[in-house]
């Protein structure tokens, strides 16, 4: 129980499909009637194929909090991955959650099944008894398919009861799809057999394909040939003629599922098995209802509206992709995700990014580090959150801040996975309404599926661009910087020319001061104490140079023990050069006192300066500084830099 509420979970992949969305509405409406809350765990894959995207979609089920669920409804037939389904059921059982499986028998669950057989039998009887058909073709699905074989045997039995033999060459296998059905119709047309009085099809998709083929050959349905379907597909409502078909009674199934959970929670006895009859609909394609073309035109207008809305959605998604992939900071990313998610998150919306995912933006780590929570490993980045129009910029938390408040107001929340192909990244939550709870309906799952999938893609591109930017920056840094963090020769010359151009453009009289520095005794340190100690000494020099590196200075290591400092100034250049060398020496002296090393790190220096002018040759100044440095170096004895 969460916050004093009873919470029902719903596992229903592919919510954009009509059967899944119909079951959702039935369960949701019943949940609202009971005053429960419902968490939907949705994916855009049914996991029939084990591709990378499906692997990523599975991660939504990792966010099921079994500790807060009081009941669970699973549309079992829609989850094609048996291992995944078994894992969810096992975890629910371990947590003592009463689980209802709809349309698939699962051991240990309360099972609700549809009676396909009786409805198909009713259609076959109707064709024979009502319409007097004796020559009948059966358009079956795939050979060996359970549903297809059951319906084929049902037709054979009913026809036999009426003294009609189902001829083997009048059994066609359309495999439940349009293409194979058309191929079967072409094959039958070449067989030399007469056209039947009726085509009884094992699903609507094949029935509509048969109607289209017959119309193309000049046959009138139902005047010359009757056609029936099965399953009550969503697309059938836009077909002319409307099909005689049978539909799953998802409304009754959804009600039964929630009623069973309610009975269990209240301690009342509940059955562990329910059988739900299909609704048989007799319509145009068998001749029971004449085609009303005025009614048909009324069906076409909603279809045009749907196409228009789909076009708007596609444009919307392209804009979302362009905008999100152009974001450079998490704040921009957050604001734009929310701006383009308002269509699907009127009430509550959030995106949570996993704690261990660190490359979405350069400033991601800052949000983790700035969190006041002691246990940062348990944090997620809440990329964005909105509740009733109030939005939050990115922040880190163990759960979204406004979710509990949203739970007090709304009943239905949908979870979906955020992932980059097979890599789980996080999850999203949105509050939904079917319209029966007093709020405006906002559950267009066809467009939501497009949106969520493209949002994943947009975030992945934004992430890839961020990673690419980091790689480019790193390569650029490697091109211009030494491993000590000082500029290398390339970096020095690239930047000094820019500095000189800026100085000339200022119009002021400025000087370029060059300090050439060479470390004393590096070979002795390497020979006596090893190259690791030589690296320590070099890094000590680098640290000293960094300590004087300001806005007007450049510090570089030209190689080995050779270092160069450039400074641009308006004041006395000699004083500037002496001040820089003094500060370097003081830094090194502090190192020598604290290091405990058996050697001292020191250097020789040469200072040269000139007024900055056009076409200045920097190498000439460096050579003059080098000459002065070598003169000083010649006066130094190696023994001065050893404590031995």
For the largest beta-sheet, the strand count, sense and barrel status come to: 12 strands, mixed
| Helical residue percent band | 40-55%
Strand percentage lies at 15-25%
| Radius of gyration, CA atoms, in whole angstroms | 38 Å
- Count up the helices: 18
Instruction: Please state the average pLDDT score.
Output: 89
Structural class: alpha/beta
The CATH homologous superfamily name of the largest domain equals: Response regulator
Give the terminus-to-terminus CA distance. 75 Å
Q: What's the architecture of the largest domain in CATH terms?
A: 3-Layer(aba) Sandwich
What is the 3D shape?
Answer: elongated
- Unreliable segments of 5+ consecutive residues: none
Question: Would you give the CATH topology of the largest domain?
Answer: Rossmann fold
Number of domains: 3
Please tag this protein with its features.
single chain; 644 residues; alpha/beta; Rossmann fold; Alpha-Beta Plaits; 3 domains; twelve-stranded mixed sheet; four-stranded parallel sheet; elongated
Describe this structure in words.
- This protein is an alpha/beta fold and 644 residues long.
- It folds into three domains: 7-113 and 343-452, 3-Layer(aba) Sandwich (Rossmann fold), CATH 3.40.50.2300; 115-246 and 280-291, Rossmann fold; 489-641, Alpha-Beta Plaits (2-Layer Sandwich).
- The protein contains 18 helices and 22 strands.
- It has helices at 18-34, 52-57, 82-94, 116-130, 146-161, 178-189, 204-216, 250-265, 293-325, 330-339, 364-369, 403-409, 445-480, 489-506, 522-529, 531-548, 573-595, 618-634, and strands spanning 7-11, 37-41, 71-75, 98-102, 110-115, 136-140, 171-173, 198-201, 226-228, 245-247, 273-277, 279-281, 348-353, 380-387, 390-392, 395-397, 412-420, 423-432, 511-520, 553-559, 562-569, 602-611.
- The strands form four sheets. Strands 1, 2, 3, 4, 5, 11, 13, 14, 15, 16, 17 and 18 form a twelve-stranded mixed sheet that branches. The protein has a four-stranded parallel sheet with strand order 7-6-8-9, sandwiched between helices.
- Helix 1 runs parallel beside helix 8 and helix 4 (116-130) packs parallel to helix 5.
- The longest helix is centred in the C-terminal third of the chain and has 36 residues, at 445-480.
- The chain is elongated.
- The two termini are 75 Å apart.
